[in-house]
């Protein structure tokens, strides 16, 4: 699993941690802004050139910081990449989480979140860093673990909301969520590798919403056929 951002940040010179009590110093603010500049620089360069063709010198130059400042926060190029990966994945996760928490019918929230995820797969930074480069740089197993970390919880909660609302029958949530995650990962890869990503995204949205609607209809019919159903 990719290390969370809070664990990637250095503790400071000689391993000292900032004073307790919640007070932030100008030094803390400067360190945070430096790290943010490095991650933003890395995202731009990895998106444009890819991991293999991007150097640490270019990242620091674009961020306007020293190489020493980079090594204060990151152990090397892969750690910078994983921070960039975390940033683009977190942006998508935050948008999906906000949609799933909105008021309204759970089914509509689920479909809106699905459309948002497919739209995210068209974003150049998400495509290049999360979908193309992630499995190569991090390795397939760690990449899948990272996808679980960012996405599985959202899918699981959406499934529970749909079951509680009576939109789906009481199916095994964990296994169904993992099957859906695998489907979404495959869909994202199809979009990223397509010659015409927008066309493929449109086709996948129609296919997935159609399949989900059939599952929903079957669930509602099964519920209606149960003894004692209204």
Whole-Å distance between the termini? 46 Å
- Structural class, from secondary structure content? mainly alpha
Radius of gyration (CA) equals 21 Å
**Helix fraction by DSSP (H/I, runs of at least 4):** over 70%
Largest sheet: none
* Total number of helices: 10
Element order, helices and strands?
A: HHHHHHHHHH
Estimate the mean pLDDT confidence.
87
Summarize the structure.
With 230 residues, this protein is mainly alpha-helical.
List the helices and strands and how they pair.
Blueprint: H1 5-8, H2 26-49, H3 56-63, H4 67-73, H5 77-101, H6 106-120, H7 124-138, H8 140-164, H9 173-193, H10 197-225
Q: How would you characterize this protein structure?
A:
This protein is mostly helical and 230 residues long. The protein has ten helices and no strands. The chain has helices at 5-8, 26-49, 56-63, 67-73, 77-101, 106-120, 124-138, 140-164, 173-193, 197-225. Helix 5 packs across helix 7 (124-138). The radius of gyration is 21 Å and the shape is elongated. The protein starts with a helix and ends in a 5-residue tail after the last helix.
What labels would you give this structure?
single chain; 230 residues; mainly alpha; 10 helices; 0% strand; elongated; disordered N terminus
């Amino acid at each position: 699993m990719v290390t969370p951002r809070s664990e990637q940040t250095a503790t400071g010179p000689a391993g000292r941690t900032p004073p307790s009590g919640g007070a932030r110093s100008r030094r803390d603010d400067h360190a945070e802004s430096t790290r943010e500049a490095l991650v933003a620089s890395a995202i731009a360069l990895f998106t444009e050139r890819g991991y293999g063709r991007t150097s640490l010198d270019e990242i620091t130059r674009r961020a306007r910081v020293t190489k020493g400042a980079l090594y204060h926060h990151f152990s090397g190029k892969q750690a910078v990449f994983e921070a960039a990966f975390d940033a683009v994945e977190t942006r998508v996760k935050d948008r999906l989480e906000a949609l799933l928490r909105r008021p309204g019918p759970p089914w509509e929230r689920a479909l809106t979140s699905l459309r948002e995820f497919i739209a995210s797969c068209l974003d150049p930074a998400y495509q290049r860093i999360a979908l193309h480069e992630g499995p190569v740089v991090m390795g397939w197993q760690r990449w899948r673990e990272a996808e679980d970390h960012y996405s599985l919880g959202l899918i699981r909660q959406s499934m529970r909301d749909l079951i509680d609302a009576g939109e789906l029958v009481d199916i095994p949530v964990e296994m169904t969520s993992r099957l859906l995650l695998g489907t979404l990962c495959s869909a994202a890869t199809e979009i990223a590798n397509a010659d015409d990503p927008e066309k493929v995204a449109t086709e996948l949205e129609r296919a997935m919403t159609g399949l989900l609607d059939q599952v929903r209809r079957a669930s509602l019919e099964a519920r209606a056929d149960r003894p004692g159903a209204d």
